[in-house]
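Board notes (copied after class):
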Amino acid sequence: MSRPHFLTALSLLVLCATPAANAATKPPAAPSGLTVKALGVNSFQVNWLDKSKNETGWEIRVALKGGVPQRFVLIPTANATGYTVTTGTELPGKELIFQMTAYSGVAGQEIFSKPTPIVTVRTLSPSTFSTPTMLVAKALDDSRIRLVWKDNSTSELGYQIESRVGKEKWLALGTVGPGVTFSIPISGFGPRDTRSFRVRAFKGGDKFTGYSNVAKATTKELQAPAGLAATALPEGAFSFKWKDRSFAENGFELQSKIGSGEFQSLGEVGANFTSTGSILFLTDTAYEFRMRAFRLVGAVKTYSGFSNVFPIRSAPLNPPTSLAVTETTDTSATLTWIDKSARETGYFIQHREVGTTPFSTTMVAANLLTATIPNLESGKLYEFRLSSVIDDLLGNRITTSGYKSVEARTKEGFTGSLNPPIILGTSFFYQIQTSLPAGVTGLTVTNLPTGLTFDSGNRTISGTLSSAGNFTAILTATFSDGTTAIRNLVLKSALTAPTNAQSFAAVNVSPAAVTTESLAGKFVDSDTPSAARVNTTSGTFDIIFFPFATPATVDNFLDYTDAGEYDNSFIHRSITNFVIQGGGVKHTTAAGFTRLNKFTRVVPNEPILSNARGTVAMAKLPDLPDSATSEWFVNVNDNSGVPPMGLNFQNGGFTVFGRVPAAGMVVVDQINALPVRDHTIPIGAGTQFLGGVPINAATPPAFLDPAQLVKISSVTAAPILTYEVTSQNPAVATASLTGTDITITGVAAGTTAILVKATDLDGQSVSQNIAVTVP
């Protein structure tokens, strides 16, 4: 097909692009510094300076010398400063004139600037169309390769670029316009991608020169981001920014580290991002951050190296303000405050008697503005401190804001132990004590169990408890300042042996005949409502529960037992003459070391009973009375102590919920006598430190051998009573046990007695006979 003459084509463009009326009122500033360079017999490189701030695009006007420049093309790109004009017709040695304007407005409603001065330029001559030479390929980065070659043509319309990998087929990458020298960045390759390139000139749709020489280049490896920086925002948040140095990434991974720990991934952002918004972290914590780029090829993800490491400390929590004590009783104080934090997961409330050193800590829920601290001593001046608290992301620590302090005095009331020991059938004496003895104007005691009496003159309770059980007497004192204190006096007793609850009926059984008698209801052990059996590789011991004194704690332990959570756990802590502790960590050959699955509920502290030798109590977090979950310990010694020392008083008192009978304490003592060693064990992707792990070895090895642990194979229900049956005359009748049934078999005529003996978990027994007649 013949091409239209250059001037004809130009006229057609002008006719087709005649602008309509423009609604714009202010034209853009005209460009300046117009330069035009001939690239061949039909192409020109046009460059200019952008002087406008509101242009939509540019108009290039062209004509043969002697004519009037007319619109050749509209370039709808703001801020451009260069363009290649191709006439479509070879004009060797001809002179053309160029002129430019800027325009703004939408298509058909453009408004134009003043034109630039006319620039005259002559096309190259004579016309040549020769193979390009001196092709050079150089990698720019991890995605782009720059091509440079020598232009040996003056009449080309452009160049076709081809590439291939190895010996594969050459593939066309595309075309570029004409020019004397070229520096073409080609993108879209992967990191460490080796390519061969060749180019050839073209004009028309089917006229090509020969190919240039072949040039080869390999892109760089995936480039790591640089200049990573973090900005600390309020209450532990950070924002991040960095420099993207890769053209091939699919995104970036941010990592963090605390202290001497390992870097952990925080997540990913997409390609070409160079910043993030606010991200929450631990408060008041020293961090190190780093970043790397990643690339996906199918399902395979590869990473660049890391950026710089950026150290920074997060901002602390905002502390509460306006702490005040608004009310006190003889045993409590009510605090109020203003919440200034948006992140707290709760509050630490600490208190101590003024003049003493240790603080006791209570944790309350987030967003509260008031709380009452119980279990205070009467008539004492206390210091109270409050801090916001946030859970550690690792679940192992707690971070707090600064403390605010205030003092207040509790009202007058009772002092001394309100849980005195009492033994069934033994003389009991208790002196009632108050914070202000001289100020007591009235004192009453109600709900005393049978056998005990109150002497108001000397303020004592005395007598002998006549029946077993858990009793609560109510003490009421009135003081001269008009205040009244009411407290519970807890009196708990325990039986020491099982008893006969129901007699067996006489039995008649024929020779060779069989009869069955049930043990159900015949014996009772009042001091053992329920019990568990702990089966370990070092022996078995039982735990007798105190469900009436500590119902929530016993239910919690039994829930873990029923769920099988204690199975395959081990004794992970032992302190000589103090405690052995379990219920925290498991080990199996298949899963290795794992933590117990802990229930989410909070177990309230129930510090009713004393931490005497042989008792079993719940472990908990420091300064958090209501933090018991799955871990428990056996007191190897009397750890009750006196205020403020001892487990009865520390951390609100440790909840005793059971006891180990004497036979089981032999096993506990053997475990406590084993050598111990500290170990750091792998759990999941992290580790956990265990201090004082008892080891079944003469010398604990440096590396922990799971086979040497004191493993707990299972925790099951323990029978409250065990039974024996003995015939006094086997020649008349014999007896045997099947579960809780006694099978009596007649042998020969006569009479005998079957002795039935019931033994409790403490080793104490009671017996009764079954009269047997064989007719």
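Comment from the instructor: Residues 533 and 542 are 4 Å apart (CA to CA). The chain has three helices and 62 strands.
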